[in-house]
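ingest -> validate -> predict -> emit
validate: passed (alphabet ok, no gaps, 177 aa)
predict: started
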Amino acid sequence: MGLRGPRLAILFDDADTKAAARAIAHDVGEVMTEETIRATPRAQDTPPGQHLADRITQTKVRLTGRNTYTSGAETDDEKAPYVEWDTSPHWIHPKDPDGVLVFKGRGGVTVFARSVFHPGTQGHHMFAQGAAAGDRALPRIAAWHMQGIEARVQRRVRAAGSAYSMRQSTFGRWRIG
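emit:
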């Protein structure tokens, strides 16, 4: 007859990893959203609260697979793709065929036109910048949440009165990257 020691499954709860994965997605999504908003240009003549940056929000954390969560930044503003990406020169016409375009011209003069030729723009790539910020923050955020799991496992080991100790040399700190 042999001896069977405590099972690791008792010490390591799958709920810990699910909660950490969800929290990591949330925190990285928050970084992405903040950077996207920071990188979004603000037109000088747009009233406060109506800037594109004011309409950028964090997506809800979604479960997309086993222990796989997603989050990020989003907007429903129809101008966003034209600010994010480069645009080629193009004609702009009013939505209503009988309507006119109204905008502020040079010197703040109000201009009325049936159509205008836009020379195109260089994109600001603010969502790409937000994604890059999320990529940079992921190792730090994940390591912080993994250390939380480590602390919970160590508490369970102590609570179980286990003769097995988790030494720094064998368990170590979570390192990502």
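Residues 162-177 have pLDDT under 50 and may be disordered.
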